[in-house]
Amino acid sequence: MTDADTAQMPVEDFEELAHTAPETVQIEFINGKLEVRPPTDGTHGEIVMWLVRLCFELRPELGLYQTLGLVTERSCTGRYRPAGVLAPVGHFRGSGEWAAPDGVLMAVEVSPHRPARDRRDFREKRDGYAAAGIPVYLLIDRDAQELVVYAEPARGKYAQRRSHPYGARVRLPAPVAITLDTEKLKDYTR
Description:
Blueprint: H1 11-20, E1 26-30, E2 33-37, H2 42-58, E3 62-65, E4 69-72, E5 78-80, E6 84-88, E7 98-99, E8 106-110, H3 124-131, E9 136-141, E10 146-154, E11 157-165, E12 169-172, E13 178-181
Parallel strand pairs: 4-7, 8-9
Antiparallel strand pairs: 1-2, 3-6, 4-5, 6-8, 9-10, 10-11, 12-13
């Protein structure tokens, strides 16, 4: 539902709303609908920081940017705030609040950890990242205690999907091309 006739509001109105929203509230525009991003917890932050440190250690020429606004979806009307966006250091210099997906190597989401969890990361956002042509999407699913790696975006979908349990060595495909030792993620389970 990214057609302007079926969207809740024009994307420009969403951007204005997002710009004036309090810092404590993060909103996204997913498939033409205003969505409030659930608050993160300390464990979410620890998982993201674990990944930031690994990416810096293994690929120091890349940065894993947090809370960056990203333009997504086929018609470029989506506005997401991934947990992390992997791109060359300096890539977003001069970008506004909502950066284009060109040059982004990977989008990262860490699922909320609660019984009635938010499923946007599993479907809508995954497809929005694919439609934007982001080569790799990494979903860290806290409830299932697994990493799900999506790759090879084509026609708004990822052609490849691989799941790996916490503790596995996970090879992220090119252009990311790093191997994650996920043993540390076991420390972040309940």
